[in-house]
Amino acid sequence: MIKIIVDTMGGDNGSKATVEAIKNFLKNNDDVQVIAVGRKEELKELEGLCEIVDAPDVVPMTAGALDVLRMKNSSMMVALNLLKQGKGDGVISCGSTGGFLASATITLKMLPGVKRAALVTSFPMQTKGKYLTVCDCGANNENNPEELYQFAWMGQLYSKYVCNIEDPRVYLLSNGGEDEKGSPLVKETNKLFREKNFPNFQGNIEAREAVLDPKVDVVVCDGFNGNIFLKAVEGTAKYMSKLMKEAFLLNLSTKIGYLFAKKGVKGISKQMDYKSVGGALLLGVNGIVVKAHGNSDAYGFESAMKIVKRMAKANILEKIKEGIAQ
Amino acid sequence: MIKIIVDTMGGDNGSKATVEAIKNFLKNNDDVQVIAVGRKEELKELEGLCEIVDAPDVVPMTAGALDVLRMKNSSMMVALNLLKQGKGDGVISCGSTGGFLASATITLKMLPGVKRAALVTSFPMQTKGKYLTVCDCGANNENNPEELYQFAWMGQLYSKYVCNIEDPRVYLLSNGGEDEKGSPLVKETNKLFREKNFPNFQGNIEAREAVLDPKVDVVVCDGFNGNIFLKAVEGTAKYMSKLMKEAFLLNLSTKIGYLFAKKGVKGISKQMDYKSVGGALLLGVNGIVVKAHGNSDAYGFESAMKIVKRMAKANILEKIKEGIAQ
Fold first, then answer.
1. Chain A residue numbers touching B268 (CB-CB < 8 A)
2. Whether pLDDT at A205 is above 80
């Protein structure tokens, strides 16, 4: 049976959101067990529902890797060490992103052959059920072609097993669609992909087309560019939603208009909200590691827990090893 | 008197859009003269209004720099050579972007001390009259800190004289707001900006905040990242507008809603449309060079002509030289 280790502390909404998420998740997933790690006194509602491991300390949101590694009794470190000891299949936290990703990498170590871990996420696009996956979306500041080649494997596996896309099409993020365009890194990487004949590699793609073209399943990029791409999309979507809200509040007529149009327009601001996916997956380390958003509510955290389950069911670590060995 | 040299050919809408733009522009700007370059027989409507220089050949949209340089009788090359000979203050074209930028750089040469030319554009944000300037947004594939330092000067001048922002605040595009975060290039560049005490430098900024924070006037980045940022914003804005349209077409009720809300929502898709600025400015070369969008209509092309006028009035080339010498 799949066992998910949950760091219940450290998010913006404290244990309240995570406890509710665990309760809902267990209700809907009777084939999964949970180990809840955190302040025992805050986890009383979970008694009898799942295993509870007491951890008195909470990692602050601003903590870096070294801070986390030093806090041996924090819920984050206790959870990571439980995974390292093989007590579960995956770990999830909504605490400090930098602290969690770095201490997870140091604690769990890399999978054999993997050069760098990558952060992978996806956002809902175009039609319901269709997701755009970005890999790496921010674990690294700098990468080389060999690392990007591995990211493509990892992104493709994510797209296949989290987004349920059968044969995901992979593109390299660039400043133009032609093979000979791009930064020096992209040019070299494109050559490597062509030489090694990466399965279903479709070539380079501009950021605009990556957003608009429904054919794009996976965008591969270094972590710095992935962060810029993802955050530009997020900021613009938020900005447009704000404009829309203001537009409907303009006067009495537009307010009436909203009442009539509500059914159509209400979902728009949720669209493209990559937070609805719940979290991002750190791929390449020796364990399933999901970073839920710091401001996750119960719904978001539950969505992120589902990622752990899917990844564990898909036996993702073995699949990454196989891909890397090819 | 300011004199603008116009390549009237090579855009998606041919000479029709540019001729109309010139007519409108001259009506509203009696302190500017125009030299219209193109097929004489297509410019008959401009007779008596401005100087006409015949150029029989048209550069195709796909032309690269070498193609353009070889087409001595093309309207693009004739226009560039007129500027080189000092026959005008600036040149504008809506033909092939790559071909125009590269042949402009080769023909006009760089301003003394400038390491690389940068493409600068801006898009309307937040409140009307507020613009976000991006420099370099795509002229380069790779840059070093010294080049980015010069881009900051050029971006700031653009923001001041095109966007009318008195003392523009400059940020470095990065994957976090802290000075010590970013790609190796960003980290080095941040250090250089701090050491040299760049006027009104505010530090690093994430793409999300660059879009959302009204304090940001100028975002400095290498051309590759600038392209990804700008195109991600453009794609997302377009995607959201499409969703909105579909939402209003959902059923009879939402259609009625649109009629009531029209006044508010109609302008949204125009917001963030960086095309409404008309074009991008190539800064750093020895001449004012504006690239209007390939699909410019008369209104867009006229907007782009205004950029040439403002830049000439501001004596931008001297100002860049002064900034670079500091």
1. 240, 243-244, 247
2. yes
Taking an 8 Å cut-off on Cβ atoms, the answer to whether A250 and B263 are in contact is yes
Specify the pLDDT at position A269: 66
CB contact under 8 A, A228 and B232: yes
Kindly determine whether residue A227 and residue B246, on different chains, have CB atoms separated by under 8 Å. no
CA-based nearest distance B213→chain A, Å? 10
Q: Which of A298-302, B244-248, B313-317 has the weakest average pLDDT?
A: B244-248
> What three-state secondary structure class fits B113?
coil
pLDDT average, residue stretch B50-64? 92
The upper half-sphere exposure of residue A270, i.e. CA atoms within 13 Å in the direction of its Cβ, equals 11
Min distance A130 CA to chain B CA atoms (Å): 14
Pick the closest to residue B17 from B42, B52, B48 (CA basis).
B42
List the single residue in A228, A264, A265 with the smallest CB-CB distance to B228. Answer: A228
pLDDT band of B57, cuts 50, 70, 90? very high
Residue A250: list chain B partners with CB under 8 A.
Answer: 263-264
**Chain A residues whose beta carbon lies within 8 Å of the beta carbon of residue B210:** 232, 235
Closest-CA residue of chain B to A225: B225
**pLDDT (0 to 100) of residue A275:** 60
Would the pLDDT of B226 be above 80?
Answer: yes
pLDDT > 90? residue B4: yes
Sort out which chain A residues have CB atoms less than 8 A from B260's CB and list them: 253-254, 256-257, 260
- Asked if residues A111 and A320 have their Cβ atoms less than 8 Å apart, the reply is yes
- From chain B, pick out residues whose CB is under 8 angstroms from the CB of A123: none
Cβ B278 vs Cβ B307: under 8 Å: yes
For residue A187, what is the enclosing H or E element? helix A184-196
Instruction: Check B175 against A246: CB less than 8 A apart.
Output: no
Amino acid at A169: R
- Report the pLDDT value the prediction gives residue B120, as an integer from 0 to 100: 94
A99-125 confidence digits (pLDDT tens): 999 999 999 999 999 999 999 998 877
Q: Do B42 and B8 touch, CB atoms closer than 8 A?
A: yes
Q: What is the mean pLDDT of chain B?
A: 90
Inter-chain contacts counted by CB atoms under 8 A, chains A and B: 206
Return the SS3 of B29. coil
Find the CB nearest B264 among A209, A247, A268. A247
Q: Are A134 and A122 in contact (CB under 8 A)?
A: yes
Sign of the torsion angle spanned by Cα atoms B253, B259, B264, B265: positive
Q: Measure the CA dihedral A211/A212/A216/A221, to 10°.
A: -30
Per the CB < 8 A criterion, the answer to whether A226 and A207 are in contact is: no
Closest to B196 measured CA to CA, from B235, B152, B156: B152
Contacts of A141 in chain B (CB under 8 A): 175, 181-184
- Residue B159, pLDDT > 60, answer yes
CA B41 to chain centre: 30
Residues B211, A232: C-beta atoms closer than 8 Å: yes
Distance CA A155, CA A319 (A): 12
B260/A247 touch (CB, cutoff 8 Å), yes or no:
no
Our CA-based measurement puts residue B181 at a distance from the nearest CA of chain A, in whole angstroms, of: 8
CA dist B235 to A127, A176, A212, A217, B193, Å? 16, 14, 6, 16, 31
CA distance A55 to A236: 39
- What is the ipTM score, two decimals? 0.90
Helical (H) or strand (E) element with A37: strand A32-38
Average pLDDT over residues B303-313: 92
Q: Which band of pLDDT confidence, cut at 50, 70 and 90, is reported for residue A135?
A: very high
